[in-house]
Design brief:
This is Alpha/beta fold hydrolase. InterPro entries: AB_hydrolase_1, AB_hydrolase_fold, Carboxylesterase_BioH. By secondary structure, the protein is of the alpha/beta class. The chain has a domain of about 190 residues: Rossmann fold (3-Layer(aba) Sandwich). About 40% of the residues lie in helices and about 15% in strands. It contains 10 helices and 8 strands. Strands 1-2-4-3-5-6-7-8 form an 8-stranded mixed β-sheet, with helices on both faces. Helix 1 crosses helix 2, helix 2 packs across helix 8 and helix 7 packs across helix 8. The longest helix has 15 residues. The protein starts with a helix and ends in an 11-residue tail after the last helix.
Length: about 280
């Protein structure tokens, strides 16, 4: 029996006897990211970056100069996963600022969630020039969408492999981990209490999205179903849906069609009159 099957079996059994205890353990596991090692192909780009610590302790990497594009990686991700996109943006004359999300990389914290990701983006934006675009992958995309509802201003927004409905993802995780019905309900409530926001509110169908956007998703994504992209696109009047047949959850970040579509979106909204540098 695999370790995952063993955990599922334990959750199913103990979850019926002590649903709150099992839900609490799963909540902590769900919100505690692992520190995964960089791949060799990420190292050259990391060596070219300038690292800046923002006022509230968040760590960011910066490349290039010009209008600012803010990047937010996904759960257990890192800025250098955007390597091909970063190189293309810098080559096109943009400054790229990529966050280490809370509890990731060199940013502080031990636990994180989509609300903390969104607030981190607001904190970063308060120290940056007006944003040309925001690009988020997976939870980073969900947090970017949420951040725009909390006051983040950007001329354009790109989501990649992002969920649009957090409650759906929470219930899916709980089922995947074998939690019985009562334990699943406790798990959702505990996540909501920790995040400080009802999961039903973190739903793109309730958002007002008034900027141009691009929604990118691969049909073979094993973690976030492509139907999430379709829901985002449907709720976002001025968005384009780029549906790729292959790319999984991570490989899609290096797809040339994603890069081309992102640069096309930025060309569409034009260049600002002036650029103010980021202050370290």
């Amino acid at each position: 029996m695999s370790s995952l099957n063993w955990v599922r079996g334990l959750n199913a059994t103990v979850g019926r006897l002590a649903p709150r205890a099992v839900a609490g353990r799963m909540r902590r596991a769900f919100m505690t990211p692992r520190d995964l090692p960089l791949r060799d192909w990420e190292l050259p780009l990391l060596a070219q970056a300038e690292r800046v610590t923002l006022r509230f302790g968040l760590s960011v990497l910066r490349w290039g100069s010009g209008p600012v594009v803010l990047l937010m990686h996904g759960w257990e991700g890192r800025p250098t996963q955007f390597a091909e996109l970063i190189k293309a943006l810098v080559g096109a004359g943009y400054a790229v600022v990529a966050l280490d999300a809370p509890a990731h990389g060199r940013s502080p914290g031990r636990e994180a969630n989509v609300v903390l990701f969104a607030r981190a983006m607001l904190e970063a934006a308060s120290e940056l020039p007006p944003l040309k675009a925001v690009i988020g992958h997976s939870m980073g995309g969900a947090s970017a969408l949420l951040a725009t509802q909390l006051g983040l201003r950007t001329e354009a927004l790109v989501t990649i492999a992002a969920p649009g409905r957090i409650l759906t993802m929470l219930r899916g995780f709980a089922r995947y981990m074998g939690l019985p019905a009562r334990a699943r309900a406790h798990f959702v409530r505990l996540v909501e209490e920790k995040a400080g926001m009802p999961a039903r509110q973190i739903d793109v169908a309730q958002y007002h999205l008034d900027m141009p956007g691009l929604v990118v998703h691969a049909a073979d994504d094993p973690l976030v179903p492509v139907t999430e992209a379709e829901a985002i696109h449907q709720a976002w009047p001025d968005s384009r849906l780029l549906r790729l047949e292959q790319g999984g959850h991570q490989r899609v970040l290096g797809d040339p069609r994603l890069i081309e579509a992102t640069l096309h979106l930025l060309d569409r909204i034009g260049q600002p009159a002036a650029v103010v540098p980021l202050t370290a």
